[in-house]
Task: inverse folding
């Protein structure tokens, strides 16, 4: 058997994104048991790092043993019981996934729909939420399928006024741009490790406000999903460290190290670097006569959606980038299939030099 | 920030178990995207390795993006719909977990209980299943909480005669001892990566027979858990490779490499090595006047449960082993709390030399 050598890729897609070498090296370190005191010490480092990136003082901040989608399912199944009303702001693929999961868990799902790529104003949110008076309101902060960034306050303000918990999908935002959870009045947020945190996929950071946790403690029926039951998980992560499942230790080492790298760089420095790289990317793209799908002011800085120009073959371009340059970018799907390239500029790749490399290669492969 | 250096442990507990260096090195290799053709090639290597270890020709063999408990929850939520009758053979902690999950998913759960550490005879299974005529019958092949090994045929034979699907928990058996899925007539089986496969925790191998998959395709209500919906996952793993979630690429590299190491050693050679190490462990333990909880003939070869001798302090012994020798073993829980040591002899540690190291250290730390 020959040595296992995966191809070397430059991950300019929406995620997984590029991983720093020190994170890989952390994963090559030996594991310990899932009840080892050393592991619980690492959980505390992780919680501290996630708190800083989420912008929260919540006690409840953990990383679940699944990908970002497991985080979404944990948020919905724990905080919205069967029969409760869930209001969803939907303008892209991931809000549609929230709707699908909510329905499967027996929630009474009501939806405010807009076209993919749109975002919601406070007036729209207010009218919808006052009419529906839901138990919880869910929205996607940074919609990976479209590149549109939702202003959280446009939704959390109206939600608070009707007493609804707010659930924010921060899968694409956490670690790359500010989330400002407490300032934005978000109750529950979840994310992944393979985008803004520059780690491999496999864990789902999640946090909940004290009032959300209070509602969790008073629910009568247990969470329908044992694996993602936050009540049981809390007993493992905190306090008694009672066995629940066997935590994915190597993936935890990666997250621990990825967060350490972010804290060393400085969170605000990192956010500013992503913003600068985004602005440089936009300048270069527009200089080449290409257009972005989302108008300025509501673009996700670390995930750019570039319209596929007339006459350019979308799958062929992406295939050439991968095969000839080792560069991954993504296409659109749903109503945006064939219409956009989705280009992540995140983590180690969020520099002017790497943006140049990407844009030059893209132009070449579009020919 | 100093370099991240976890303590070096010898993992003689029930899992996570010791990981070979080449598996760690595989995790330090760069990731690719979750839709990268190279990743799908690795899935095929993994499927081939798992098929050999499960002892099956099933088309459906995959590794889910969660730990063994997620495998359990996937098996129950996909193959037992709300309202259907699930018969559980219960004589330990993990069968109790099956009961708990089944109830949460709305199954009509009926249970045949025996004391922790017991196993079931064909006559007992037959009487129970003929009386209950369930949709599915679930049992634990190797019960990690007690060290008892269940003969699958004692349950699958009677189950077949009443038309019930059989679900086998192979979390502790897969990779270390034969499962012989097809020969034993098991329909659905799941496992983990951190025990018999000698990989870090994080994935859940799962397989299902063609008739089980047929039942899956004809169920009317969708799986209540989107993240573990095998119908959707099949579209990602096979055929169209339609996006579902972002697979944990580094953990997949580990599993790919761990299976490659097992195939290189030879599956039957590996099983024989585990059996020999177990027999040597038993000889040494009994020579020292210690007793095993489970009688010969139904012991799990790779997971030994040793009775804590009169006058020996269980937590103190385990704490000393960890702190003074860097050796992890586990204690008992539930009705066996304080009564047993749970000692895994698996993977790289399943040799006479390592058994000597462990037994000598145990004797020393029990003093």
Result:
């Amino acid at each position: 058997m020959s040595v296992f050598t995966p191809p070397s890729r430059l991950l300019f897609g929406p995620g997984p994104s590029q991983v720093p070498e020190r994170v890989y090296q952390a994963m090559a370190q030996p594991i310990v048991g899932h009840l080892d005191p050393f592991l619980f010490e690492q959980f505390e480092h992780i919680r501290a790092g996630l708190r800083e990136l989420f912008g929260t003082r919540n006690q409840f901040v953990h990383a679940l043993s699944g990908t970002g989608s497991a985080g979404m399912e944990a948020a919905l199944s724990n905080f919205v019981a069967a029969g409760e009303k869930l209001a969803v702001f939907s303008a892209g693929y991931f809000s549609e996934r929230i709707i699908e999961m909510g329905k499967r868990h027996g929630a009474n799902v009501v939806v405010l729909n807009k076209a993919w790529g749109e975002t919601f104003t406070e007036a729209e949110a207010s009218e919808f939420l006052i009419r529906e008076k839901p138990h919880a309101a869910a929205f996607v902060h940074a919609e990976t399928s479209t590149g549109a960034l939702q202003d959280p306050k446009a939704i959390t303000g109206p939600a608070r006024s009707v007493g609804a918990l707010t659930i924010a999908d921060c899968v694409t935002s956490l670690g790359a741009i500010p989330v400002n959870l407490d300032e934005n009045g978000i109750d529950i947020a979840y994310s992944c490790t393979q985008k803004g945190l520059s780690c491999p996929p496999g864990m789902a950071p999640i946090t909940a406000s004290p009032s959300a946790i209070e509602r969790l403690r008073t629910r009568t029926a247990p969470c329908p999903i044992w694996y993602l039951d936050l009540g049981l998980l809390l007993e493992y992560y905190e306090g008694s460290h009672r066995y629940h499942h066997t935590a994915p230790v190597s993936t935890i080492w990666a997250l621990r190290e990825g967060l350490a790298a972010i804290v060393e760089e400085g969170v605000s420095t990192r956010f500013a670097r992503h913003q600068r790289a985004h602005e440089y990317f936009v300048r270069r793209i527009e200089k080449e006569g290409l257009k972005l799908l989302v108008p300025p002011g509501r673009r996700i800085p670390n995930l750019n959606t570039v319209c596929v120009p007339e006459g350019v073959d979308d799958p062929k371009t992406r295939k050439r980038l991968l095969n000839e340059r080792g560069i991954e970018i993504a296409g659109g799907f749903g109503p945006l299939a064939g219409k956009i390239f989705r280009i992540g500029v995140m983590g180690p790749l969020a520099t002017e030099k790497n943006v140049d490399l990407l844009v030059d290669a893209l132009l070449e492969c579009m020919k």
User: Anything to note?
Assistant: Chain B has a mean pLDDT of 97. Chain B is about 40% helix and 15% strand. Chain B has two domains: 10-14+267-366, 21-263. The first helix of chain B runs from residue 21 to 27.
